[in-house]
Structure formats: structure tokens, C-alpha cells
Amino acid sequence: MKNPNTFTWNAIIRGYAESENPKPAIELYGLMHSNSDLVTWNSVINGFALNGKPSEALALYQKMDLDGLKPDGFTMVSLFSACSKLGALALGRRAHVYMVKVGLDKNLHSVNALLDFYAKCGCTKDAKRVFNEMVERNVVSWTSLIVGLAVNGYGSEALKYFKQMEAEKWLPSEITFVGVLYACSHCGMVDEGFRYFDKIKQYYGIVPQIEHHGCMVDLLARAGKVKQAHDYIQQMPMQPNSVIWRTLLGACTKFGHVELAEVARAKLLHLEPKHSGDYVLMSNLYASERRWSDAHKARKSMLEEGVAKIRGHSLVELGNQVHEFHTGDRTHPQSEEIYAKLVEVTKRLRLEGHVAHTGHVYADIEEEEKENALVHHSEKIAVALMLVCSPPGTPIRVFNNLRICGDCHVVIKLMSKVYGREITVRDCSRFHHFRDGSCSCGDYW
User: Fold this and answer.
1) Which terminal CB of the chain, N or C, has fewer other CB atoms within 10 Å?
2) pLDDT band, very low/low/confident/very high, at 359 (cuts 50, 70, 90)
3) 32 pLDDT band (50/70/90 cuts)?
4) pLDDT for the residue numbered 365
5) What strands lie across the sheet with 313-318, from one edge to the other?
6) Which pTM value belongs to this model?
């Protein structure tokens, strides 16, 4: 290439940044750093935000600020996306202040991203305030709020806003209805969910897509109607995908339906044979039934197939820095204080009558070993750090990449009461808002 100009460089960098391996984008960016412009910065930041590299996106945004370049609306959209994935609430709030200062709070795309950011950080009050203050709205605005309230466990409120959306003559999109059905599913509103599903086609003329059918399977499965969920799958107008079969498998594990679980597992072996979660679910189901030989076979086949288990981790923001923990993690500089706090927590919760839910440890080991394994789950370590390092009464927000286990759910409920903290945990499927010994999910999750 002979004497490439800025436009050419930007096109190349954008292509790399939006690929599965955005590393070359950084290298190319370094070559032209002195001549880089806002378009270049936005290309790289957006590429990282879209490709599961939120930490790198935030680092570049902070460097951009040091270099004196002022973000525009495109930057803000990518920034809020990265902040929401990392749970970087403090940085997102600073970006919000900046938006207002420079007038970007009138930019519809930026404000929609801000609303989505607050909802994904569990700050539904802030999300509603942003929505109510919007000068201009579109379907994305309504959908972001409805979906945000639904995943935070406020299904009734999500449906209230949907009814308001209808009253104001907005036409909901396919994604809006995913949020509506999600709200019904996560709040146990089975009959209501079926009424809304019928409305999609009969009233709005929208042909239900596989995502809508997946919500209906989830609706039945979460309610313990596992056989009905399987019947629904059998009658779907399209071939069910791996997500739908995995939903059924998860419900079978929870409610102890071994035969249907094996049916779902057989389908998943055909559709997505290398998914580690399926091996784990089957192993856990067999273990819960004390079929240790079958549980061992499931784990062994996972190893033989070269399938790596997804490692659980928890993120928590403290002092404008995001801290990451894994189960049993002792790499943090304050590990000694953290584990001392966990010992204290265990003692205080025992006084409250807590007994470890060792049934959630699917291994043929002694009860004491199971209790120790549960104490060191990553979300408990993250909460312990905040108890050590943040002032009393400060809200705590933890982001998990996997579903919170039953024992952690019970323990964190009690911690919110004993330590007087509001604790929010976002796992891979929803939010749990713990306060005064109860959870927003109503123990329906």
C-alpha cells in the first residue's frame, strides 16, 4: 500500500477491530497514533466493545481523554456498552455527567445507550429517570426500559410500561415482545405470558420467531411444567435450537426429570456437542439423584472430548477499578482480609440460623468439604471485599458470568440483612436485588 491516508487507515483498523481478533487493530493504531482522529478512536473502541473486550475499550477511552480528544455520540454508545458489560457504574456515571455538559443528552442514540447501561447495571431508578427525561423517544427507548425492568425482576412494572407504550400508539417490535415474554417468564406469570404470545400474531401481525418460542419454553420450564415445555417444543413450527433444548435440560436438572433430561441431552449432542454447560448439567443431575457412576461418566466424557468447563468469575467495582475473582481466588492483595471476613460472615450467619446448602455441591465428598467449597464461591469473595473496603451502608454490585447457586443466593440474602447492605448480583440470566434479607426475584429464579 502506497502512502495510505487517514481514511484508508481507519477502514483497515475498523475491519480488524470488528473481527474476532481485534489485536491487529491496536498494532495498526499504534503505527498511526500521532495522526489518529476521532473516527479511528471510535472504530477501535467499538470493535473492542462488540467483541467481548470491554476492559480494553475502557482503557482506550481513558487514554483518548488524556490525549485531549473529545468523545462524540458514537463514542458514548460504545463506552456505555463496555461499562455495562463490566459493571463499571462509576465510570458510566462520569460519562453521563460529560454527556449533559456537552449537550449529548439530546442525542437519541447516546441516551438510549445510557438508559440501557443503567438497566444493565441494575440501576432501574436511574434508567426510569433517563427515560422520563427524554425529549425524544423511539421504539428502542421503550424496548430498552421494558427489557431492563424485566431482567431486573420487575416484571409487573415492565408490563405496565408496555401497556403505556400501547396506549401512546407505539408499535412494539419483535424485540419488545421478547422483553414482555421474558418479564412473564421470570415472574411466573404463565397465563399472562400465553395471552401476550397470542397477541403478537393476532393483534400485531408479527410472526413469532424462535426467540419468542424460546421464551414460552422458558415460561413453562421455570414454572416446573417440564413435560408441558417438552410438548411445546415438539409442536414448534420450526426446528428448536440448542438454546431451547438447553432451557429444557436446565429445568430437568432443577426439578429432577432424568428421562427428559437425557432426551434433551441427546438433541444437544447433535446440535452443539462441545458446550461444557450441558456436561455439567447432566453430571449435576445424576449427582443430585446420587447416581455417582453416571455423574462420573458425564465428567469423564467431557475430559475425553476435550471440552473445557467455563470458569466462573465475579466482577466488582471499587475505587474506579474493576476487581475480578474466581472460586477460591487468593490472588488479590487483600486476600488475607477477605478470607478473614468470610470466616466472620460464616459465624454471623450461623447465629442467624443459616445451614450451608450442601446439596448444591454435586460431589461425593464429606459435608465439611462441601461447606468449605461453598464458602469460597467467587460472588461471596467479591461481596467480602466490599464489606472490607467500602463504608458501612454502601450498596454493593457484583457481576457474575454464571448463574448464582442456591447457597450463594441464601447467604447473600442474609448478608444484606446482617450487614445492612443493598447487594445487587447480576448473573448470566437476570438480576437479584437483595435488601433486608429478601430478594427481588421472590426466590423464583
Assistant:
1) N
2) low
3) very low
4) 44
5) 321-326, 313-318, 396-400, 423-426, 431-435, 438-439
6) 0.78
